[in-house]
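Model it.
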Amino acid sequence: MPGGRNTDLTLQQRRLVLRSAHLRRTLAGQAAELRAPLALIDTGWAVGRWLRQNPYAVMGPVVLLAALRPIRTLRWMGCVLRGWRMFRRGARWLASTARSRH
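Modeled.
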């Protein structure tokens, strides 16, 4: 029955097209939920690039703060240094974990 086989294939194709459309709508809805967090991450990367290109934008206020309140600045610099060390230690740990998995 060649005609019956053709009909079955046509029905299967229609079902697959409908399922594909449904999956595309579902994916679009799920992607919309990620739009705001990803935009925030993009903004953070842009700020980081700008600060890397304009280091004096950070150094100026730090120097001014150090001149106006030296004791408080030294305390904060200690916290910043500890935070930086923790960040670097964590980054090294993540890198070594990633290397050991491959």
